[in-house]
Amino acid sequence: MKRIVIIGSAGSGKTTLALALASRLQLPLTHLDRHFWLPGWKEKDNLQFLSEIETIAERESWIIEGNYSQTLPMCLKRADFFIYLRPNRIRCVLRVIKRHLKHRGKEREDLAPGCPEGISLSYLQWVWNFDKKSGPKLQGHFDAFKRRKQELASPTDVRIFLGKVDERKTS
């Protein structure tokens, strides 16, 4: 595993898993949100965003986490491992609320500078409806991916997966 793509709903654990894998595998980590947003939650020019991600995807090794479907084709073209996090929507919404309470008004390392943690009803609705609205397209990318891939639906699945990564490292 030298180039890993991680997708899933907000609150699915993408950042947590990406950080764990980056540490274990000593791979550089890219959070797509850090590249998409400008200070004050302003969207970056789409061509500039895509150009940045294409440059990152061309590197020898990386972990890229985030849900920007327009970046998936360029990332998956080079990826050798694809992870789709699929916890249930209740877990995702609760994690988003917990994250908000923990980081309210503060900047997180996975977000762009000048974009403090916030929450809104529309964002919670987006998380709640993620599988229905975004899921089919992401599932299509996942199903079509011909190299190694893993779908993880629970914290137990993630722990088992990370345990296997640790086993491979020591053997």
Features:
5-stranded parallel beta sheet, alpha/beta
Number of strands: 7
Approximately what portion of the residues adopt beta-strand conformation?
15-25%
The global form is globular
Write out the strand line-up for the largest beta sheet, numbering strands in chain order: 2-5-1-6-7
- Gyration radius, in Å: 16 Å
Count of discrete alpha- or pi-helical segments spanning 4 or more residues: 9
Structural class: alpha/beta
What proportion of the residues is helical, as a percent range? Answer: 40-55%
The oligomerization state is: single chain
Q: Specify the biggest β-sheet.
A: 5 strands, parallel
Question: First CA to last CA: what distance?
Answer: 15 Å
Low-confidence stretches: none
Overall pLDDT confidence = 95
Secondary-structure element string: EHEHEEHEHEHHHHEH
Detail the topology: elements first, then pairings:
Layout: E1 3-8, H1 14-25, E2 29-31, H2 32-36, E3 37-38, E4 42-43, H3 46-57, E5 62-65, H4 72-78, E6 81-85, H5 89-103, H6 121-128, H7 130-133, H8 135-144, E7 148-152, H9 155-170
Parallel strand pairs: 1-5, 1-6, 2-5, 6-7
Antiparallel strand pairs: 3-4
Helix pairs in contact: 1-9
Characterise the protein shown here.
Helix 1 (14-25) runs parallel beside helix 9. A hairpin with a 3-residue loop joins strand 3 and strand 4. The strands form two sheets. The chain has a five-stranded parallel sheet with strand order 2-5-1-6-7, with helices on both faces. The protein has a two-stranded antiparallel sheet with strand order 3-4. Helices cover 52% and strands 16% of the residues. The chain is of the alpha/beta class and 171 residues long.
